[in-house]
Design goal:
The complex is a heterodimer of chains A (336) and B (296). Chain A has 336 residues and is α/β, with parallel strands linked by helices. Chain A folds into two domains: 182 residues, Periplasmic binding protein-like II (D-Maltodextrin-Binding Protein, domain 2), CATH 3.40.190.10; 147 residues, 3-Layer(aba) Sandwich (D-Maltodextrin-Binding Protein, domain 2), CATH 3.40.190.10. Chain A has twelve helices and ten strands. In chain A, strands 1, 2, 3, 4, 5, 6, 7, 8, 9 and 10 form a ten-stranded mixed sheet that branches. In chain A, helix 2 runs antiparallel to helix 11 and helix 6 packs across helix 7. Chain B has one domain: MetI-like fold. Chain B is 79% helix and 0% strand. Chain B is built from 13 helices and no strands. The two termini of chain B are 15 Å apart. The chains are: A alpha/beta (336), B mainly alpha (296). Chains A and B meet through helix 3 and helix 12 of A and helix 4 and helix 12 of B. Chain B: It comes from Mycoplana dimorpha. Chain B: Keywords: Cell membrane, Membrane, Transmembrane, Transmembrane helix, Transport. Chain B: Belongs to the binding-protein-dependent transport system permease family. CysTW subfamily. Chain B: This is Putative spermidine/putrescine transport system permease protein.
């Protein structure tokens, strides 16, 4: 018995080293769910088909904290990670490899999509979604109506995260022009939020935001566009008058052994063909400017990149610098 | 009761006076000690080290000078205390019925207790959301019967947090109580009634003191577990009911401030240890009093 076990173990070891010798294994982490499935179908599998020497292993549930801990302990097992706006800025240089723009073509991206340490994968949005059954024929028109509980009564669901765009939404509703948002006037935003505080419900996961909208518990919500669309058959509609953009970014952890392959993968994932394919499965817009106009018809009209004119671009640099302080004030306000 | 405490202290003293010769049974605990050292003590020390960058106490200073943190810590202990009292108050009669209600009652109550115990905590918290939300079953029912015309705010309130936490902690409180109560000789109650005591008096003077070790054990267990609750207050409470575990998670996952998160975790641990010590002191005081009244 013991002998067979030992033989199997040795055999397993031999085959795995043999496999490693033949190809590079690229470990990629994304956010799981339908989002990652879409990436797998439009990015990962075509990439493997084209590069037989590179095998992609998927990990789900990206976490900036995990990446940071990984680099700090010197045990980097990820080669490529999908992250959000809050990470991959110049301030995060100690944990990331700079993007190699000799491999990735910098000129193909839309504005703001190519940074020193990150490259946008897709343009996402936090939108005002509302339950049309609740309001009959009337539809809210922008963030001002989100804060108008007389005209549009009912609970409002908002992400419990200071950098979710809620401060921006409050200021826009209070009459601030998008170009004058930064630096954020925190106290003014909180004063505006005070007016609807009793009508706010906070969500902490995408599924929770869906549940709040679908059950009718919340009449309005600031949610990710994919979540709003997936409860569309429950009467949930999107008002694109004002929306804040969120972005999915590719980053490469510092110290990865497969840096070049990772850069090659980024370059491939952001090609028009791949990004157009991606829009078949997810309502997120491409970051490649040559793909924006040729997106798949399925979500046409509901892709963030179809509404770039009303987008409120969040200043990630400002948030990176002031986020911790604002968050503390936000927590304090929540407790009041 | 006096006898049991004496019994317990005897072998400890005898063992320690024997010097360096280890009893053979010692080797039985080696695997668990190794396991704890590797997977508990070592990471714990790492955590403490992260909270003290270059030996600096800045994060602790920040915690004790920032009202937000102090308020959340205070709130955590306040909620945990309320939850503990409510849980033990519900668990006590439940355990009593299990211990003395006969086989059929025991079977039904055990099943009712353990089946939810096997369901994941997240799922149970979500179920409360479905039941208690404004558009949930309870409110729908009350509105349909005409008892109320606007939904009651049952979740996103302290009430929601308490109900969810009590439900999850109930088995932890019932089981230690049941073990203690099962061993209480009911003939003592008969004896007290023969001596002329009413049932209530007998309960207060005989049964309840004998069940106190169970009450203490279940209170300690419920309280310590309550301090670390995370998902339940997040789902069933309003932000005003935030508990410290949510804050620790926020520092790690959102703010990426490992140092501050680790310092908060250490503070929670130290405060829990202090609370534990206080429980121990109360328990010792109760036992002393019990011994004195026993002698009198």
């Amino acid at each position: 018995m013991r002998k067979t076990l030992a033989i199997t173990a040795v055999a397993a070891l031999l085959t795995s080293t043999a496999a490693n010798a033949a190809e590079t294994t690229l470990t990629i982490s994304s956010y799981g769910g339908g989002y990652q499935e879409a990436q797998s179908k439009s990015y990962f599998q075509p990439f493997m088909a084209q590069n037989p020497g590179i095998k992609i292993v998927e990990d789900s549930s990206s976490s900036n904290a995990k990446l940071k801990a990984m680099v700090e302990t010197g045990n980097v097992t990820l080669d490529l990670m999908l992250t959000d706006d809050s990470f991959g800025l110049d301030a995060d240089a100690q944990w990331l490899e700079p993007i190699d723009y000799s491999i990735v073509d910098k000129s193909k991206f839309i504005e703001g999509a190519a940074g020193t340490y990150r490259v946008a994968s897709d343009i996402e949005a936090t939108v005002l979604a509302y339950n049309a059954n609740e309001y009959g024929g009337e539809a809210p028109n922008g963030f001002a109506d989100f804060f108008d509980t007389e005209k549009f009564p009912g609970l409002r669901a908002v992400w419990k995260y200071s950098a979710s765009g809620i401060f921006e939404a409050a200021l826009i509703a209070d009459g601030v022009k998008p170009e004058d948002l930064y630096p954020i006037d925190v106290e003014r935003a909180l004063k505006k939020l005070d007016r609807i505080k009793d009508d706010l419900v906070w969500w902490e996961s995408g599924s929770q935001s869906e549940q709040l909208l679908a059950s009718g518990e919340a009449s309005m919500a600031l949610v990710w566009v994919s979540r709003a669309l997936s409860v569309g058959e429950k009467g949930v509609k999107i008002d694109w008058t004002n929306w804040t953009s969120q972005t999915g970014y590719w980053v490469v952890p510092k110290g990865t052994k497969n840096k070049e392959a990772a850069m090659k993968a980024i370059s491939f994932f952001t090609e028009p063909a791949q990004q157009i394919e991606f829009t078949k499965y997810m309502p997120y817009g491409p970051s490649n400017k040559h793909a924006v106009d040729s997106v798949d018809a399925k979500f046409k009209g509901n892709l963030p990149t179809d509404h770039l004119d009303t987008r409120i671009l969040m200043d990630a640099e400002w948030w990176a610098e002031n986020g911790a302080k604002v968050d503390l004030r936000f927590q304090e306000w929540l407790l009041q | 009761m006096t006898a049991t405490t004496n019994d317990r202290s005897v072998p400890v003293k005898a063992g320690s006076s024997r010097g360096f010769r280890l009893p053979p049974a010692f080797w039985l605990i080696v695997p668990s000690v190794l396991f704890l050292a590797l997977f508990f003590v070592f990471p714990l020390l790492k955590l403490v080290a992260i909270s003290l960058p270059d030996g600096s106490l800045e994060y602790y200073h920040q915690i004790f000078t920032t009202p937000v943190f102090l308020r959340v810590i205070g709130e955590t202990f306040r909620v945990s205390l309320i939850v503990t009292v409510v849980t033990v108050a519900i668990a006590y009669p439940y355990a009593y019925a299990m211990a003395h209600g006969g086989r059929a009652v025991l079977l039904v109550l055990t099943i009712a207790l353990l089946i939810p115990f096997w369901v994941s905590l997240l799922l149970r918290s979500f179920s409360w959301v479905v039941l208690l939300q404004n558009s949930g079953l309870v409110n729908d029912f009350l509105i349909a019967t005409g008892l109320i015309d606007r939904p009651l705010r049952l979740i996103r309130t302290p009430f929601g947090v308490i109900i969810g936490m009590v439900h999850i902690l109930l088995p932890y409180a019932v089981l230690p109580l049941y073990t203690v109560m099962k061993k209480i000789d009911l003939r003592l109650m008969e004896a007290s009634s023969i001596c002329g005591a009413s049932w209530l008096r007998g309960f207060a003077r005989v049964y309840f003191p004998l069940s106190l070790p169970g009450v203490m054990a279940s209170a300690i267990l419920a309280f310590t577990l309550a301090l670390g609750f995370y998902i339940t207050p997040a789902l069933l409470g309003s932000p005003r009911d935030m508990m410290i575990a949510q804050m620790i998670a926020g520092q790690f996952n959102e703010q990426l401030n490992f140092g501050l998160g680790a310092a908060l975790a250490v503070v929670l641990m130290v405060l829990t240890a202090i609370a534990f010590g206080l429980f121990g002191a109360v328990r010792a005081a109760l036992q002393m009093r019990g011994r004195r009244t026993g002698e009198a």
